[in-house]
Specification:
Elements: E1 2-13, E2 18-30, E3 36-41, H1 54-65, H2 75-82, H3 89-105, H4 111-115, E4 122-124, E5 127-129, H5 135-148, E6 153-156, H6 164-172, E7 178-181, H7 191-198, E8 204-206, H8 214-223, E9 229-231, H9 238-246, E10 252-255, H10 257-260, H11 263-275, E11 280-282, H12 289-299, E12 333-335, H13 346-352, E13 353-356
Helix pairs in contact: 5-6
Length: 363
């Protein structure tokens, strides 16, 4: 287990708070031959997005995952052990990612390959912009994103924000695709603010209400039928999605593979979305190039209709953890790199490491 702190190129503000760096947990799985695979645990260092946080994830891996790994090293045994954990989907996903990355590096296929071959060699991406206090800052940052070619521009929003920033952005760019992400910050008394957000003509608003208030999301869709609702934090499992769909609480899904527990849960959710003609796109958690490349593998198996929150490495970090940082072409597409395992920049990882722990399963 390797904890790293990767400096960001700029401060990012949302309803959750400010962040200046990416404090990430990396899991490197080494087998008896000395071969290895790596996974990135995508949770935050604090429990403000979900109940998971980096220090807790590291403890769960050390105390409840590693001691229960099967002695025969079987994948089935690993999955059976992971199924005993309630909650901690980001942690479970990272363990799986490390194990299957190891198998890919040894020339074997993984569940995603078995489910559906990669159909796209590049995927459309959007950019997520934080909360702005000043109108000029919002307009200038949007202008830069438009110039860079992003296919969709997402603004973080909150009930207490300066709505004049969005007024100015929409006036300056009347036709660009905008979406809004509230991170569950609105309540049932914020209807007027939501009406104002709807007036800007967004493609959707993401997670306006707290995760457990599917009733409010369903009511919003009834009250403002022209405003599409996208769910994020509310869906941590297939069961959550089935319930939300049955209640009429969403039009679109933001799927973050780590948030739902990894590859098998993600496949089941993608199949449900396909069966019910529910639009879905892949979101991100400020992952480094390790986790971002993993997310791109999911996006490559979807259609090119919706832009994903998988911006290039340079959007977030001056220096990434991989030797070939993820880049975007002028048309707003990011290459999938053929699904090849990432090449780590070991010197950068060593420099940015703040904690390292080695654990072995019982003999």
């Amino acid at each position: 287990m390797i904890e790293v702190e990767v400096p960001q190129v700029e401060t990012f503000r949302s309803a959750i708070g400010e962040r200046l760096d990416r404090h990430a947990l990396l899991l490197r799985w080494v087998d008896a031959d000395g071969d290895w695979g790596i996974g990135e645990c995508a949770c935050r260092p604090d429990p403000f997005y979900s109940g998971e946080f980096v220090a807790g994830a590291a403890q769960v891996v050390r105390d409840f995952v590693v001691p229960r790994l099967p002695r025969d090293g079987s994948i089935d045994g690993m999955l059976t052990s992971l199924q005993r954990l309630r909650g901690w989907p980001f942690t479970v996903a990272a363990v799986m990612d490390a194990a299957f990355d190891l198998l890919r590096r040894k020339g074997q296929s993984d569940p995603l390959d078995a489910w559906r071959p990669s159909g796209l060699d590049r995927v459309p991406v959007g950019i997520a912009l934080g909360l702005f206090d000043e109108v000029d800052d919002a307009v200038q940052r949007t202008a830069l994103a438009v110039e860079e070619g992003y296919r969709r521009i997402k603004f973080k929003v909150a009930p207490w924000m300066n709505f004049e920033t969005l007024d100015a952005v929409r006036n300056a760019f009347p036709s660009i695709p905008l979406s809004f992400d509230a991170n569950g910050s609105f309540g049932e008394d914020d209807r007027e603010s939501l009406i104002r957000l709807a007036s800007f003509g967004p493609v959707w608003i993401e997670q306006p209400f707290p995760p457990d208030r599917l009733d409010l999301h369903a009511r919003l869709r009834e009250d403002l039928p022209d405003l599409k609702v996208c769910l994020d934090e509310s869906v941590e499992s297939l069961g959550n999605l089935v319930s939300a769909h049955a209640l009429g609480a969403l039009d679109v899904l933001n799927l973050k593979p780590g948030r739902v527990g990894g590859v098998f849960a993600s496949i089941r959710i993608l199949e449900f979305c396909q069966e019910h003609q529910l639009p879905v796109w892949i979101g991100g958690m400020f992952e480094t190039g390790i986790g971002r490349a993993a997310n791109l593998r999911y996006a490559a198996r979807l259609t090119a209709d919706l832009a994903h929150d998988l911006s290039p490495s340079g959007r977030y970090f001056a220096t990434d953890l991989v030797t070939e940082p993820i880049e975007m072409d002028p048309d707003g597409f990011v290459p999938v790199q053929g699904g090849h395992p990432v090449v780590l920049d070991e010197s950068v990882i060593e420099k940015l490491t703040v904690r390292k722990t080695e654990s072995s399963p019982p003999k």
